[in-house]
Design brief:
alpha/beta, two-stranded antiparallel sheet, 5-stranded parallel beta sheet
Length: 197
Amino acid sequence: MNAAKSVSSSNVINAPRSMTSMAKKIDSSVKVENASQSDRRLIRRDDNHENLVFIRLDAEGSSSPNMLAFLRSINDSTRCYSTSSSCLDAIRSTKESVFFICSIYNIELLMTVHKMENVEAIFIVDSNPRDIKGDFPKLIGVFTQQEQLFRSLKDTVEIFEQIRLENFSFEEETSFLWYQLWRDEASDFFTSFKHRS
C-alpha cells in the first residue's frame, strides 16, 4: 500500500552538475501546435538529447516566447500543445522518453500522465501552488517561477544522460534495460532530496 506523500512547491532540485553531456547531438524537427510565428522564430535547433522529448501542455496559452526558447535551448526536441487530448495523444504515440511540463494543476491529468511508461519526469509551473496529495515519484516539483523550472530541467536532463551513458556498455553486455535503472536511481535521488528540504 502506498502512503500518501505531499509534494510542495518548495521541493525544487539543486542537484550539482555532475558531467557534461556526451550524447550525440542531432537535428530534428520540432512540433509546436498553435504557436505564434514569433514563438516559432525563437525556437532554435541547438540541442537534441537523443531519445528525449520535452512535451509541454499550455492549455491556458500562457507560454511566453522566452519559455519556448529556453526549453529549446535545453533540448531541441520540444513540442507544445494547447489541449490535453492532443498532448496525451502525442505522449502515447512517441517512442522517446518524455519530460512532461504543464502550467495547470489537474490531479486527473497528473495521474494519467504519471501512469504512462515513457514519461520519465513531470514538472508543473503554477503561480498558485497547491500541495499535491498522492504518490507521484515522477513528479520533480511544482515551480512558482520559470527560473526554478529551468534550473531543475537542466539538472534532471544531466542526471538522465549520466545514468544512460554510465549504463550504455552494461546494456550491450546484458539484456538489462537502462531506463529501469534511471527510474530507480532518479526516484531514490529525488526522494532523498525532498527529505533534505
